[in-house]
Amino acid sequence: DLIRAKAAQAGPSISATTALDIGLSVDRPDVTLQNAPWQMRASSTLPGHVDISVAYYQGFDDLPYLNILDIASVTPGSIVGSGVTRFPFFSAVALETAAAPEWAGGLTFWLEGSYIDPQPTSLFVTSPLGDQVARDPGAPFYRASGGLDYRANDTWGVLLEIFRGFLDEFGDEQVSDYLFAGVEAAMLRELLRFRLAGGLSLEDQSWLATPQIGYAPADNFELILGAYALGGDDDTKFAGPLAGPSTAYLKGRVWF
């Protein structure tokens, strides 16, 4: 969408269906001591079975951003060009706490939050109509999550979580709010295990569901039949082109 928006300034009739022929390359950070990610953490256990930790992190994000876009030609049917992506640098402070008080009878509560301060980034665009520069000042933003889970003798459990900021969302204008829930139950002396988890975007009401049936005939082997089901309107979080299709799968797990 960003590329189409920039190309629309240099050519006619650009829409969401205009084909992109953009050769992207990745400019990775130099392997130097200055660019090495690092983290420091302090943690403690408080009275009442409460764990708490504070951490500071500095490094590059895993998802690159578009830094250079060279639009060679624009027609109503296609956009041709090249681009360079780089990884954004940021620092973050995180607070995590979890509690399993005796009065809760097997319930565990947790709360996590992080304050993220990204460095400014720029997008340099060249096109037949001239050059442009779009700058992002790198406004700080936050991610947060909280929830609870309950497990009973490894035979069944439930999970409920609400959080702000998905893994692929970076920047105050991108982070959204989500609700996730899951349940797991074992039957026939844990020979069969049923799992169902689902999530809902509170911004656009798109959703995902991940049902699974696990069969464990041995202590170190499990055969899993499952699916990723996605739904919602077009161009939403879990139903847009980047989310991919709904999928069914069969896989095995072996551990030692």
**Structural class computed from helices and strand pairing:** mainly beta
Strand order of the largest sheet: 2-3-6-7-10-11-12-13-14-15-16
**Biggest beta sheet attributes:** 11 strands, antiparallel
Order of helices and strands: HEEEEEEEEEEEEEEEE
Question: Span from first to last CA?
Answer: 46 Å
- Uncertain segments are none
Overall outline: globular
Average pLDDT value? Answer: 87
Beta-strand share of residues: over 45%
Strand tally is: 16
Task: Bin the helical content.
Answer: under 10%
Query: How many DSSP helices?
Result: 1
Evaluate the radius of gyration: 23 Å
Structural summary, described in words:
The chain has 256 residues and is mainly beta. 3% of the residues lie in helices and 62% in strands. It has one helix and 16 strands. The strands form two sheets. The chain has an eleven-stranded antiparallel β-sheet with strand order 2-3-6-7-10-11-12-13-14-15-16, with no helix packed on it. A hairpin with a 3-residue loop joins strand 4 (65-74) and strand 5 (78-86). It is globular, with a radius of gyration of 23 Å. The model has no long low-confidence stretch (mean pLDDT 87).
Which descriptors would you attach to this protein?
single chain; 256 residues; mainly beta; 11-stranded antiparallel beta sheet; 5-stranded mixed beta sheet; 62% strand; globular
Describe the structure concisely.
With 256 residues, the protein is an all-beta fold. Helix content is 3%, strand content 62%.
Give a topology summary.
Blueprint (H helix, E strand, L loop, with lengths): L1 H7 L10 E9 L10 E9 L3 E11 L4 E10 L3 E9 L2 E11 L7 E12 L2 E7 L2 E7 L4 E12 L3 E9 L12 E11 L4 E10 L5 E12 L2 E11 L15 E8 L2
Parallel strand pairs: 1-5, 4-8
Antiparallel strand pairs: 2-3, 3-6, 4-5, 6-7, 7-10, 8-9, 10-11, 11-12, 12-13, 13-14, 14-15, 15-16
